[in-house]
Amino acid sequence: MPRLDYTKSELYVKDELERLFWIEIAKRKACLLFGGAYSRLVSLRNELEEYFASVADAGEEPCTDGDAVVFNIVQFGWHVLDRVSDPRHAVLIEKAAHKHFEVATSLYNEIPYHQGFYLYDFSLETDLEALHDWWSYITSGTGREDLGTTGHFSTVGEARPVAATEDLTFAGDDEPTIRVGDPVSTITSLQAPVSFPRRLSPQRYWVHTTDEAQIVIDGHELRDQLVLHVDLFAPLPSMQKIEAMLVGRQRLAKALRDFALLEQGILPEKEQNTDSGNIDTLTALLVEPPGEHKLMKGVTSVRPMIAGFRAWDLAEGGLADPKAAKQARDELRGVGGAEVISQPSAVRALKNVRSLVEQYEPSLLPWNTSDG
Question: Is residue 218 left, alpha or beta, with left meaning phi > 0 and alpha meaning psi from -120 to 50?
Fold first, then answer.
């Protein structure tokens, strides 16, 4: 079988959809066997989201991650509070966590199918119609031309010259560095309208940066360092996973520093010793090899999975299979309202998803193993 080449964007999109399809199956298994508990979990997250949105004072940054932090406290422990994105929200989050901790913990313990995922991701409801619209657009000729993408389902286009619409002066320059009308190398991208879940693997290694934690060894405080620590007696994880974590945390630390400079109106300096292969290395290490995906096998896998999920939801809501498949087909249209899913295809998609849901167990997740 010939090897398929994917763009970097496609590698990430393919991996994101693989993770999304797995969690959608897991959520439906939870609905099937623990319907009441899962509904309460979703309702609790919605309640927390509304609460944090309602308590924001005028002129203050809203607490947009409060619901996620509360669920992370339940799943990982109270130390999560030490790493909230805005320390000013810590007291507010802690108060909400104390109020809902008992109920959230009970639901966490009652539903086993969140294993391998973050509880917060597991509680999110995915807008399947919006997901399908996004997929239809990025795979269409119109979408690919608008974004300037190559490949079949990239979301990040190639750099193209676009005329500047305003003058832009870089730090240190007296005159505008870029003037109106000057060609500027521009990249167009389109973010997905849904949240993609993160993998949660049994972990025996951690990486910290001295930007986020005070690290002292023999009385000497480290600065500008990455620190890896592993369990002294547990089996060591693979060097590939360690490298992925180190490269990822290094790039994240650099990006956060650059962003802080940009907020001050300072253009970050380009590093002279940057490894130009880091991006390729990180891509290869952080996404599963595309040939190993079990659900997102290729460009033709996506519509049937989305249609199957939607038809399954409708069938569980009381519709007969043919009617559920027809409604899913009618709801999920292509660009310009084109019919892109046939009735027989929708019926087959429903049967496939039903089988996947019924057979699902957390042990089937490729990353839910103890081999690090």
Answer: left
Q: How far apart are CA 284 and CA 57, in angstroms?
A: 43
* CB-CB contact of 237 with 205 (8 Å): yes
Task: Determine the distance from the C-alpha atom of residue 95 to the mean position of all C-alpha atoms in its chain, rounded to a whole number.
Answer: 27
Q: Give the residue among 32, 131, 12 at the shortest CA–CA distance from 356.
A: 32
**Nearest residue to 153 (alpha-carbon basis) of 140, 166, 163, 142:** 140
Pairing of strands 220-221, 216-217: antiparallel
Strand, coil or helix: what is 220? strand
Q: How far is 222 from 182, CA to CA, in rounded Å?
A: 45
**Tens-digit pLDDT profile for residues 191-246:** 999 999 999 877 667 788 888 778 888 889 889 999 888 888 877 777 877 887 78
How far is Cα 342 from Cα 186, in angstroms, rounded to an integer?
39
**Token pair 């993998």 in the structure block, residue:** 199
Q: Where on the phi/psi map is residue 77: left (φ > 0), alpha (ψ -120 to 50), or beta?
A: left
Which of these, 196, 47, 193, 231, lies nearest to 118 by C-alpha position?
196
Question: pTM of this prediction?
Answer: 0.83
Which two structure tokens, joined as six digits, stand for 57? 């004072």
Our measurement of the distance from residue 266's CA atom to the centroid of its chain's CA atoms, rounded to an integer in Å, reads: 29
**CB-CB contact of 132 with 303 (8 Å):** yes
User: Would you call 328 helix, strand, or coil by DSSP?
Assistant: helix
Using 50, 70 and 90 to split pLDDT, how confident is the model at 316? Answer: very high
Please report, for residues 42, 162, 186, 213, the alpha-carbon distance to residue 218 in angstroms, rounded to integers and kept in the order given: 47, 54, 49, 16
Integer distance in angstroms from the first to the last C-alpha of the chain?
A: 30
Q: Which two tokens stand for residue 93?
A: 């989050």
